[in-house]
Amino acid sequence: MTRSIDFYFDFISPYSYLAHKKIINLNLRNIFNYKAILLGGLHNLAEVTPPAFNERKMKNMKEDCNLIAKKNKISFKWNEKFPINSLYLMRGFLIIDDNKKSTFIDLCFDAYWKDNLDISTEKNIQKILTDCEIDHAFFKKEIKEQRIKDKLKDLTGEAFNLDVFGAPTFLVNNKLFWGQDRLEYAIDESKN
């Protein structure tokens, strides 16, 4: 029996995008439970300086992501607007119907990491919502509700309490696997 795998992600994480594409390519999406976190909030809790704010790490991360994408035949373009504030989209993930979540994830990741779009702008969010058949007014209203703000904050805090410090992180059988390069290890563990 294969166990489900929790996948802690944020749309601004290029490695989360690459892991997501690998999951699709392996045709294993059905065993992953996508868990929204706010990566900036998690970094603050863990006292981690993200690579985006370290010139040497940032240079290496760009080269590394391109290398991984090429090796795995994943369409990838480093986003010129990196990093953006993903707060509204991560909250949005929490309010949309389960039957639309996969499409929402695909469109957000592709817009940012394949199409080089700034997914924090009203115009680009509207396009994603239209393509997902999500009412824009409902989305705008719901992401500002305190219960949704608290839910994302709580999910990020729960991830931190599980020792998650970055994205992507996979959790299966109470074991953490950090990074897109640990995806296969998490999948192997899910079979135990």
Question: Outline, from the CA principal axes?
Answer: globular
Tally of alpha and pi helices: 9
The value of Rg in angstroms is 16 Å
Helical residues, percent: 40-55%
Number of domains: 1
Largest sheet: 4 strands, mixed
Determine the CATH superfamily.
Answer: Glutaredoxin
Strand order of the largest sheet: 2-1-3-4
Backbone structural class: alpha+beta
Query: How does CATH name the architecture?
Result: 3-Layer(aba) Sandwich
Distance from N terminus to C terminus (CA atoms, Å) equals 8 Å
Please state the average pLDDT score: 95
The topology string of helices and strands comes to EHEHHHHHHHEEH
* CATH domain topology: Glutaredoxin
Number of strands: 4
Return residue spans where pLDDT drops below 50 for at least 5 consecutive residues: none
CATH class: Alpha Beta
Q: How much β-strand is present in the residues?
A: 5-15%
What are the salient characteristics of this protein?
192 residues, alpha+beta, Glutaredoxin, 4-stranded mixed β-sheet, 9 helices, 4 strands, 54% helix
Structural commentary:
By secondary structure, the chain is of the alpha+beta class. Strands 2-1-3-4 form a 4-stranded mixed sheet, sandwiched between helices. The chain is built from 9 helices and 4 strands. Strand 3 and strand 4 form a beta hairpin. Helix 2 packs across helix 8 (146-161) and helix 4 (87-95) crosses helix 8 (146-161). The protein has helices at 14-25, 39-46, 55-71, 87-95, 98-113, 122-131, 136-142, 146-161, 183-190, and strands at 5-9, 32-36, 169-172, 175-178. The protein has a single domain (5-190), classed as 3-Layer(aba) Sandwich (Glutaredoxin).
